[in-house]
Design goal:
five-stranded antiparallel sheet, 1 helix
């Protein structure tokens, strides 16, 4: 299956869920500073962002390169 990106409709949650082999790997968030950030793990336990980029497609490429 590999890495998949699933749009999220939850308020206060990520803009996009990141799935690896059908299981949730983390989420992509877009804070007010307009830099997309990928956090791995549970949203309730967010630490520092694993990866970030102002361009969503470039961030997705970085995620695929690291976790595929």
């Amino acid at each position: 299956m590999g890495i998949e990106f699933q749009p999220s409709s939850s308020l206060g949650g990520p803009n996009t869920w990141v799935l690896k082999d059908g299981r949730r790997l983390g989420g992509i968030y877009l804070p007010p500073d307009k830099v997309y950030r990928f956090y791995r793990g549970d949203p309730e336990k967010l630490g520092p962002a694993e990866l970030s980029d102002p361009n969503l497609e470039q961030l997705k490429d970085k995620i695929r390169a690291r976790y595929a």
